[in-house]
Amino acid sequence: MRLALWFLGLFGVAVALALFASGNDSTLTVFWPPHRVDLSLNMVLLLLGLLFVLMHVALKALAALFAIPGQAKLWRVRHQERVMYSALLDALSHLIAGRFIRARKAAELVLAREAAMTRSGDAAPDAARLRVLSHLLAAESAQALQDKSAREVHFQQALSQAALHEASSTRDGVLLRAVRWSLEDRDAGAALDWLDQLPLGVGRRTVALRLRLKVTRLAGHTDGALETARLLVKHRAFSDSAGRSLVRALALELLQTAHDPAALQTVWGKLDVSEKCMPEVATAAAGRLLRLGGDAHTAFEWLLPVWDRMIDATMGLSQEQKIILIRVMENGFSATVEAIDTAWLSRIEHAQRMQPGDANLLYLAGVACLHLKLWGKAQQLIRQALPRLNDAGLLTRAWQVLAELAQRQGDEVQAGVAWKNAAQATLRRKT
Questions:
Q1: Other C-beta atoms within 10 Å of 311: how many?
Q2: What string of DSSP letters covers 360-415?
Q3: What Å distances lie between residue 361 and 156, 194, 234, 372, 421, CA to CA?
Q4: What is residue 431's three-state secondary structure?
Q5: Which positions ≥6 away from 149 have C-beta within 8 Å?
Q6: Average pLDDT, stretch 10-26?
Q7: DSSP state of 98
Q8: What are phi and psi of 317, to 5 degrees?
Q9: Residue 23 clears pLDDT 70, i.e. is over it
Q10: Contact between 296 and 336 (Cβ < 8 Å)
Q11: How far is Cα 309 from Cα 307, in angstroms, rounded to an integer?
């Protein structure tokens, strides 16, 4: 449609010019004494049009002639840029492919080309950022080649270039690479120093938090590692199971740093509620408190959430977790009889009634009766539990309790049989 309109317009102009020229008898007289020249007006208009076209073509030709040096310079600059960016891509591809010597040479070629362009006054766009990236690639290649001196030279150059305003966006990446290199060198102190130089917002990114977790664990700062792990779990950097496993491992490691009851209670106070409810953490903390001679009542308070979880049918504990809990509670009973107060005794009896077929709870109830000097009931409960105990440790301890009760009653024959069974159970556990 547009083409048809153009043709119609062109035909219209042609018709108008034909009508104007065919009916135009005007002449133009030019006096140049002593001469006189008569020209048709149509001819004059045609000559003026041709003159305009000729002048236009001549000006275009002159402009193209004078633009040749600029075009040549532009071509040279573009050629240099193509070579430079091609070398940068080569450095990246070689680094990814593990050809570190070639990668470093390609990165140094980029730096050489960029320096030549800068000296000639044709600095490339984003030259500062280009220098930072090239130095980082060269430093990364040197790190892979264990050339620490070359890595340090390129790193310092990258850091100084990143301090410029036009390359300020690359400084965070330079610092993060420094943290990684220090971590690979097992230099926790240097890595922590580089992490402290990161801006607050950058330090809370997932990649920075992952690095901080590794560095704090390397430095032995378990409390800092635990705090970092909590942030990573909050940011969903791990799956739920992996996050819980990591936090649990760090909490257990933090508990091992306490060497007296006061320090252990301080560490316990630093843990979150969710961490305190983890069976492994609570039983480990209570067991360590008892081994350090701490208050048994405090240990049983720490165990209460785990106990509630064990008797909850919707949650429950694994067999291993239940056995560990029973062992810690038995150690608490052995530490002081006062630990078996009315509340705990009622809890044990209630759980035993709710799960009458659970041999582990029968054993625990028997141990509680033993420490309360209810010899007959203790012997009865432990005998009921014996045939169904699957844990070798509890089985050994059950036979030992029966042997002690038989000796207390003066039945040396039964005591000897029980001691023999206990020894056999111990041997089976070792094998």
A1: 15
A2: HHHHHHHHHHHHTT-HHHHHHHHHHHGGG---HHHHHHHHHHHHHHHHHHT-HHHH
A3: 65, 54, 37, 16, 21
A4: coil
A5: none
A6: 68
A7: T
A8: -125, 160
A9: no
A10: yes
A11: 5
List pLDDT tens digits, range 2-17.
Answer: 777 877 777 776 677 6
The one-letter code for the residue type at 318 is S
Instruction: Tell me which range, 131-145, 284-298, 305-319, 355-369, is most confidently predicted by mean pLDDT.
Output: 131-145
CA distance 287 to 329: 8
CA angle at residue 78 from 75 to 84, to 5 degrees?
140
CA atoms within 13 A on the CB side of 7: 4
List the structure tokens of 111: 């730096």
Nearest CA to 307 among 287, 320, 281, 326? Answer: 326
For 307, residues 6+ apart whose C-beta sits below 8 A from its C-beta are 325, 347, 351
3 state SS for 17-34? HHHHHHCCCCEEEEEECC
Give the closest residue to 224 by CA, choosing from 196, 245, 198, 201: 196
* Partners of 32 in the β-ladder: 35
30-46 tens-digit pLDDT: 777 787 777 777 777 77
- Confirm whether pTM is higher than 0.85: no
Would you state the structure tokens that stand for residue 295, as one six-digit string? 């208050």
Q: How far is CA 218 from CA 176, 184, 189, in A?
A: 17, 11, 9
Q: What are the phi and psi torsion angles at 316 (to 5°)?
A: 70, 175
Complete DSSP assignment for 194-260 = HHHTS-HHHHTSHHHHHHHHHHHHHHT-HHHHHHHHHHHHHTT-S-HHHHHHHHHHHHHHHHTT--S
The SS3 call for residue 53 is helix
Q: Which residues are CB-neighbours of 419 under 8 A, at least 6 positions away?
A: 399, 400, 403
Q: What is 310-337 written as a DSSP string? A: HH-TTT---HHHHHHHHHHHHHHHHH-G
